[in-house]
Amino acid sequence: MPWLQLKMEIKPELSEQFEDILLAAGCAAVTYEDSADQPIFEPDLGTTPLWQHTTITGLFAAEHDLQVTEEFIQQAHKQIFDNSPFPPFKAEILEDKDWEREWMKNYHPMQFGKRLWICPSWRDVPDPKAVNLMLDPGLAFGTGTHPTTALCLEWLDGQKLDNKTVTDYGCGSGILGIASLLLGATHVTSVDIDPQALQATRDNLQRNKLPNKLMDVYLPENAPLIETDVLVANILAGPLTSLAPVLAQRVRQGGLIALSGLLKQQAEEIQNTYGEWFDLDPVTEREEWIRITGRKR
């Protein structure tokens, strides 16, 4: 069924009151988004920061009368905030769609580097002679569409992975580890905090007709501390910083590391942290996101 969507720009300190108003008006769901492209990095545990310019969205069943709903919200606003101006808002009808099918329809094969293609499992491969990774991410992160994943895939395509072992820390859909195997790696250790990611990784390994023995998947607390030739970690700056000693231990002397999931503002901190163990290359940037690579001393 279609939905009625109301959007208002509000001050973040008033978010709870506006959420209460929308819910009292019969709203089915409330969401917040940034109105001014203001990044919020990893917040402190237990906090929920909002942007200085915040848009609050209320989603209503389509049978809600727009005029009645608007009058209710304005009256509630007046009671709570006295005579302060009612914020500008807009209303629109959202047509109901099968969003999973809509996404699948628009997810196309993509090339990374010279050899590697990431292909949705429901589409034909564009080049049968290429290195084709068949992917269905399921509920896990990692399709190749995000710049950080693309940066890692392109880096892997440019490495000589024959007879190398790889650790994929924060494996998500398994895309980086499976790409490593298809590009010549002999074994991959995949680690993620999300059990759904581990299941998606196993499923995609089978989807690419690769033997289970080529990849081990672990939750972090169960992952053995073994050294590999290459480590890729496409996660956030906070975990990359706190996990630095652990990740460094997982790379053999002379081995390679690739770190992403980072904004360019975070480059200096990560470089200073990992420079203790690695000789680092110049930063590679794409759309405000970066990749940091290096070789262990």
How would you describe this protein?
This protein is an alpha/beta fold and 297 residues long. The protein folds into two domains: 3-96, Alpha-Beta Plaits (2-Layer Sandwich), CATH 3.30.70; 101-296, Rossmann fold, CATH 3.40.50.150. Helices cover 29% and strands 30% of the residues. It contains nine helices and 15 strands. The chain has helices at residues 15-24, 66-81, 99-106, 147-157, 175-182, 195-207, 237-242, 244-249, 267-274; strands at residues 3-10, 29-34, 54-61, 89-94, 110-112, 116-120, 131-135, 165-169, 187-191, 215-218, 228-234, 251-263, 278-280, 284-286, 289-296. α1 packs across α2 (66-81) and α4 runs parallel beside α5 (175-182). The chain is elongated, with a radius of gyration of 23 Å.
Count up the helices. Answer: 9
Q: What is the residue-mean pLDDT, rounded to a whole number? A: 87
- Named at the architecture level, the CATH assignment of the largest domain is 3-Layer(aba) Sandwich
CATH T-level fold name of the largest domain: Rossmann fold
Largest sheet: 8 strands, mixed
Runs with pLDDT <50, length 5+? none
CATH 4th-level superfamily of the largest domain: Vaccinia Virus protein VP39
Helix content: 25-40%
Give the N-to-C terminal Cα separation: 59 Å
- Write down the Rg: 23 Å
Percent of residues in beta strands = 25-35%
- Large-scale geometry: elongated
Q: What is the domain tally?
A: 2
Q: Please count the beta strands (DSSP E, at least 2 residues each).
A: 15
CATH level-1 class of the largest domain:
Alpha Beta
Question: Strands, helices and their partners?
Answer:
Elements: E1 3-10, H1 15-24, E2 29-34, E3 54-61, H2 66-81, E4 89-94, H3 99-106, E5 110-112, E6 116-120, E7 131-135, H4 147-157, E8 165-169, H5 175-182, E9 187-191, H6 195-207, E10 215-218, E11 228-234, H7 237-242, H8 244-249, E12 251-263, H9 267-274, E13 278-280, E14 284-286, E15 289-296
Parallel strand pairs: 6-7, 8-9, 8-11, 9-10, 11-12
Antiparallel strand pairs: 1-3, 1-4, 2-3, 5-6, 12-15, 13-15, 14-15
